Amino acid sequence: QQQVKQSPQSLIVQKGGISIINCAYENTAFDYFPWYQQFPGKGPALLIAIRPDVSEKKEGRFTISFNKSAKQFSLHIMDSQPGDSATYFCAASRGYQKVTFGIGTKLQVIP
Amino acid sequence: DTGVSQDPRHKITKRGQNVTFRCDPISEHNRLYWYRQTLGQGPEFLTYFQNEAQLEKSRLLSDRFSAERPKGSFSTLEIQRTEQGDSAMYLCASSTIAGPGTDTQYFGPGTRLTVL
Predict the structure, then answer these.
(1) pLDDT digits (tens, 9 = 90+) for A87-111
(2) Chain A positions in Cβ-Cβ contact with residue B105 (cut-off 8 Å)
């Protein structure tokens, strides 16, 4: 059972554009929603995270929007740069337990 | 660098052989997690430890897999009688349970296993 659904699986954006990745979850017990960035051959690295009592969190060019009633959250990357080209995973967890990941979105930012 | 470290980074083995991977968590992190990632997929949970106690094991962790964290510091993941389906990236992560806001899991670089 895929508890965190992520779309799209691939995304091509022009430099300077906005990249948007969407996720939906099923388990209402989840209380922590991190986004991870992964480059080829590397482990996932935490990008930004949000808790369900907050509707939006912004860190630099990265913003998470969270809709608790719809059980959906999304990542917006403003002014996308070629260096942002990577695979992005949304994820969810409860307390200090295991993290459940989405399938991933491969982002390519073209000059 | 005080991040999570894993050794080896790459391992090529023949089907039927045993392999062992090591993970060193961030210092003083009391929780340690193992995940497996196959090509084009997100990481999938295998097991986790709090200090030396193994608290949860996934159904993905067959009898051929065993993990230990004997002194509550580093951990090992052993796969016995490897199969081609075991080929994957094995990721280790660690976290602390020091209170609110500390539940972020930090990942190591992974061990890429190829079973021939």
Answers:
(1) 999 999 987 788 999 999 999 999 9
(2) 34, 46, 93, 99
